[in-house]
Amino acid sequence: MFGRSRSWVGGQGKSKNIHSLDHLKYMYHVLTKNTTVTDHNRNLLVETIRSITEILIWGDQNDSSVFDFFLEKNMFAFFLNILRQKSGRYVCVQLLQTLNILFENISHETSLYYLLSNNHVNSIIVHKFDFSDEEIMAYYISFLKTLSLKLNNHTVHFFYNEHTNDFALYTEAIKFFNHPESMVRIAVRTITLNVYKVDNQHMLHYIRDKTAVPYFSNLVWFIGSHVIELDKCVQTDEEHKNKGKLSDLVAEHLDHLHYLNDILIINCEFLNDVLTDHLLNRLFLPLYVYSLVSQEQCEDRKINPQVSLYLLSQVFLIIHYQPLVNALADVILNGDLSVFSAQPEQNALKSSSSAGVRRFTKPAESLERSLEMSRQRGRKKVQKRPNYKNVGEEEEEEREKWRKGEHTSNK
Q: In the beta sheet, which residues pair with residue 408?
C-alpha cells in the first residue's frame, strides 16, 4: 500500500517539474532499469526518450547543468542501445522523430557539441534501418537534413573524420539521390548543398577524391535517363493525353538543372571541375547536342531534336557557370562534329575517371557499391588517430626504450 508513493525505479520520487535537472535524473534511472526493450516497457521507453528531449531543449535555454548531466551519464548511449535491439518500427520512428526535434531546437553551440561529442550520432546515421518503411525513411532523411543545417567550420569535425576518411552524414545521404519519393531526393540535394558550402578544405578534398566521381557520374546518368523518359512521353503522346505526366517530367528536369547550378555557383573550383567534366562529356554533348546532328549522321541519337533544343535552351537559361556555358556554346555555335569522335584532351580534370570518355553511358558500378569500395580501399592503410595508440604501438615503444637503455649500459 505504500508502494504508490514511491517510484518503482529505485525508490526515487518522480519530480513534479518535468523541465528540470531532477526530472532528467529520474528519466536516467528509468533508462538504467529498462536497458532491454520488451513489449511491456516499449511505450515507457518511448515516453522517456520524449521527456529527455523536452528537458534537453529546455536546458539549452535555461540550465546548462542539464547537458552536463546528460554528457556525464553518457545518456545518448542508451538511445543507441535501444535502437540496436531491433525493437520494432514504432520505437525507430519515435526515436528518429524525437532526435529530429531535438537537433532542430538546439540553438547554443555548446549544447550541440555536447550532443555530438561521443560520436553516437554518427552511429545512428549508419544504423541499418528498414528503409522500405516509408515513415522510417521520411524521418531518417529529415534527421540527416536537420544535422546538415548544423554544419559549419566548427561542427564539421564531429561528422567528417579526416584520420579515418569517414563522412557518414554525406555518404549515407547521397545513396538516396535517386529515391522514388521526390521529397527524399529534394532532401538529399539540400544536404549535399549544405555540405559543399562548408569551407573546410580537408573535407572538400575528401569529397572530390573519394565521392565526387561516383556521385556525379550516377547523378548524370539519372538525369539523362529522366530526359529519355521525357522524350518518350513527347513522342508517344500524339493525342496529348499525358499533359500532366509531361508537365511533371519537365518540372523535374528543371529542378535538376537548378540543383546543378546551385552546386556550381558555390564556386568550389575542384568540385566544379569534376561536375563540369561529367555534364559536358556524359550528358550535354553526347545526349543533348548529339541529338541535333542530322538523322543520317547520328544512328545512336537518343532524343528528338526538338526536345533537345528545348532542353538546351533551359540549360542556358538556368546554369550560370561560365566555363561550362562557354564550352557548350562553343561546340554548338562552331558545329564541330569532331567532338563526338575525338577523345577530349587530358586537362585539370585528372581526378575524374570519366576523362577521355564522351558518351552517355551507365556507370560501371552503382553509387552505393562505389562508395563501399572506396571505403574499403581507404581502410587498407592503418590510420593513426590523435591521442590514441594503435594496437601494438605501446609495446613497440617499450622495446625501443629497452634497446636504448641496453645500448647505454654497454657504453
A: none
Residue 71: domain span:
17-150
pTM comes to 0.82
Evaluate whether residue 246 is within a structural domain.
yes
DSSP per residue over 360-403, as a string? ----SS-HHHHHHHHHHHHTSSPPP-TT-PPTTHHHHHHHHHHH
- DSSP assignment of 195-240: HHTS--HHHHHHIIIIIIHHHHHHHHHHHHHHHHHHHHHHHH-TT-
Instruction: Tell me the three state secondary structure of residue 160.
Output: strand
For residue 178, being part of any structural domain is answered with no
- CB contact at 8 A, 162 and 203: yes
Residue 37 covered by a domain: yes
Residues 206 and 291 in one domain: yes
Length of the chain, in residues: 411
Instruction: List, for residues 274-319, the tens digit of each pLDDT value.
Output: 999 999 999 999 999 988 875 554 555 678 899 999 999 999 999 9
Contacts of 236 (CB under 8 A, 6+ apart): 242
Are the C-beta atoms of 332 and 289 separated by less than 8 Å? yes
- CA pair distance 241, 41, nearest whole angstrom: 55
- CB–CB of 242/232 below 8 Å? no
Task: Tell me the pLDDT tens digit for each residue of 361-400.
Answer: 899 899 999 888 887 776 655 444 444 444 444 445 555 5
CA-CA distance, 344 to 406, in Å (whole number)?
A: 63
- For residue 17, give the C-alpha cell: 517539474
Report the distance separating Cα 156 and Cα 200, nearest Å.
Answer: 8
Q: 287, 317, 286: which is closest to 304 by C-alpha? A: 287
Q: What's the rounded Cα separation, in Å, for the pair 127 and 100?
A: 16
Closest CA to 52 of 95, 11, 87, 9: 95
Strand partners, 160: 167
Ordered alpha helix ranges (H), 237-357: 243-265, 269-279, 305-318, 322-334
